[in-house]
Design goal:
The protein has 294 residues and is an all-alpha fold. The protein is 69% helix and 0% strand. The protein is built from ten helices and no strands. Helix 2 packs across helix 3, helix 2 crosses helix 10 and helix 3 packs antiparallel against helix 8.
Length: 294
């Protein structure tokens, strides 16, 4: 039986588009782990700069590598980074939000100052600081985006937790003997899930951009790892001669980031009780954007 929230998500155009694209990327990453049309790291000088045709559906690059195979292999890197960054951001964000909303006043104020300090640093700057110490790698991107958006999630979720904590049903649950941890899991987190989901989708979208951007600059994936950012960096030198080859990695990154953002917006509408009503006939649905972008 299909969950209600999934049915509501599918009914929205933005949610349907985001869900389909993200599912395609995830399936592509799984398939690419054991099969690609060609070896993505195998060069064939005789096949340099072939136009899109059979069997190279998207053409080849300057060393004769199949661009479609490179994009499929790069999807594995993208999924790994976005999921890893999402996990780090979730753990850090929930922990800081809980400490900033459910503890003693001096702890809350200390956490608030700590979050305000960290949120002032852009994600890419954090990544460059970490990579200067441990060197460039995918783990640098994961931790940088996870930390950067973890504090962002904490900042947005904390006031929502404080608001829900004062609700009558939460006070009644506490009076019945629920511990703060049980109240957090059963009542507080489910009620702030819509706000949290939007921020999490943004963190995963930024993770895709950060991985591509840092790999482009040499701070992300190593040259032996398949990456959309590295492919874009390799091909952009030939944009004046072979512009179509640069289009594919750029378009893939753009569509993936757009899909993650729209999926987060659709999930918010599907899970937030105040947004579940359908738009009136003849009127377009309202697009909800996150309040804080870092």
């Amino acid at each position: 039986m299909t969950p209600r929230w999934l049915s509501r998500l599918w009914q929205t155009a933005t949610g349907r588009f985001g869900l389909i694209v993200v599912a395609v990327i995830a399936v592509t990453a799984i398939v690419a782990s054991f099969w690609t049309p060609f070896n993505p790291q195998s060069s064939n000088v005789g096949d340099r700069w072939l136009p899109p045709s059979w069997p190279h559906l998207l053409g080849t690059d300057d060393t004769g590598r199949d661009i479609l195979s490179l994009l499929m292999a790069g999807a594995r890197t993208t999924v790994f980074v976005s999921v890893g960054a999402g996990i780090v951001a979730t753990i850090l964000g929930i922990a800081l939000a809980a400490l900033g909303a459910l503890t003693a006043r001096w702890v809350r104020e200390t956490v608030a100052v700590f979050v305000d300090i960290l949120i002032a640093f852009p994600v890419l700057l954090i990544a460059m600081m970490i990579s200067s110490v441990w060197g460039g790698s995918l783990w640098v991107v994961i931790w940088a985006v996870g930390i950067g958006f973890g504090v962002n999630i904490a900042r947005v979720t904390r006031p929502e937790l404080r608001r829900v904590q004062q609700s009558d049903f939460v006070l009644a649950a506490r009076a019945s003997g629920l511990t703060p941890a049980q109240s957090l899991v059963r009542h507080l987190l489910p009620n702030v899930a819509p706000v949290f989901i939007v921020q999490l989708s943004w963190s995963m979208a930024v993770a895709v951009l950060a991985e591509a951007g840092l790999s482009y600059l040499g701070f992300g994936a190593s040259v032996v790892e398949p990456s959309w950012g590295i492919l874009l960096a390799d091909l952009q030198r030939y944009i004046g001669v072979h512009p179509l080859s640069v289009l594919w990695p750029g378009l893939t990154i753009t569509i993936t980031v757009l899909a993650l953002n729209l999926l987060g917006d659709g999930l918010r509408e599907a899970t937030d009780p105040t947004l579940r009503h359908r738009a009136a006939p003849g009127r377009s649905a309202t697009v909800h954007t996150p309040a804080v972008i870092a």
